[in-house]
Specification:
- The relative contact order is 0.15.
- The chain starts with a helix and ends with a helix.
- Helix 3 runs antiparallel to helix 7 and helix 4 runs parallel beside helix 7.
- Helices cover 69% and strands 0% of the residues.
- It contains seven helices and no strands.
- The protein is mainly alpha-helical.
Length: 156
């Protein structure tokens, strides 16, 4: 994709979440860990701030992921991790600040993001940003539902 090098740099910076996606072997896991870190930083903040952070990350992800695919000429390249950051924040939304919940949420999200339960398995084939972000949003919503049931029934 021919574009201004500064714009391409911005797209790479954002979609890889400050180049986290270039960490070796398991970039999606590193992106998820960044999401956990942001959750820990914002867990005691106002919900509006938390919601605005999720909204901002989602907006920037939708804006950049499809463009990053075009820059690299590859469908959903592993270096794009803003979707995992967003996914962890959605997965942990409304959860108490409890390390057991955070660890369990991380594990459930990573498993569901890998297994791609319906409709994530269909969304991942969409072209552009919706295909990149959509399957992680589904995994995050399922994770949040499972965690909510665990918290509700005091299983942890």
């Amino acid at each position: 994709m021919k574009q201004n090098p500064l714009i391409n740099f911005f797209i790479k910076l954002v979609s890889t979440f400050f180049f986290t996606g270039y960490l070796p072997l398991i970039p999606g896991t590193f992106g998820s860990l960044v999401g956990v870190g942001i959750f820990c930083l914002l867990a005691k903040s106002n919900f509006l701030i938390y919601f605005l952070v999720i909204l901002g990350i989602t907006f920037f992800g939708l804006f950049t992921c499809g463009k990053m695919e075009k820059i690299l000429g590859k469908k959903d390249p592993g270096c794009i991790v803003i979707d995992e950051v967003m996914g962890m924040l959605v997965a942990l939304s409304f959860m108490p600040f409890n390390f057991k919940i955070i660890i369990l949420g991380f594990l459930i999200f990573r498993i569901l993001d890998t297994l791609k339960p319906y409709p994530a398995d269909k969304l991942q084939y969409l072209h552009g940003s919706l295909g990149v972000m959509g399957d992680d949003l589904v995994a995050a919503l399922y994770t949040n539902l499972i965690l909510s049931l665990i918290v509700r029934f005091s299983l942890i």
